[in-house]
Amino acid sequence: MPHRFDEAVCAVCARYAQGYGYAPKGAKRPIAWVCEDPECIQVARETYEMPNDEFNRIERLAHADAGHALERYCDRIGKTDFREFDQTEFEEAMASVFSEYHEAMKGRLKNEAPF
Q: 3-state class of 22 per DSSP?
């Protein structure tokens, strides 16, 4: 099941869900839980009925965006072998990947809505 129906994960950006959720009255799907970002709440409303295949397509694009963020980070520090990363470089690399993924999911879903 896509992360958008996992109660611990924001249905839009995949950050930690904060107890906010959306499901239209009479919905046959679970609640789409979201983080505290008001934009994520709105995007969850606009994309709730999105077919899973379409959501998965958007998620794959966000994965690619995150991969490009990692490439840019590696280029910036001049390292491509993760074994050569010190702890700070590794943490910064992961932060750049996750940040790009969160923003890509939110932006790509927002640009796909409404249906």
A: strand
pLDDT of residue 7: 85
What type of residue sits at position 65? D
Q: What gap in Å lies between CA 44 and CA 63, rounded to an integer?
A: 19
Please say whether the beta carbons of 20 and 27 come within 8 A: no
Compute the distance between CA of residue 71 and CA of residue 45 in angstroms, rounded to an integer. 33
Structure-token match 């409404």, residue found: 114
**pTM (2 d.p.):** 0.81
Residue 22: HSE in the Cβ half-sphere, 13 Å Cα cutoff: 19
Residue 58 CA to residue 52 CA, distance in Å, equals 10
CA distances from 28 to 31, 32, 53, 68, 73 (A): 9, 12, 17, 36, 42
Contact 40, 13 (CB under 8 A): yes
Give the residue-averaged pLDDT of 53-81: 95
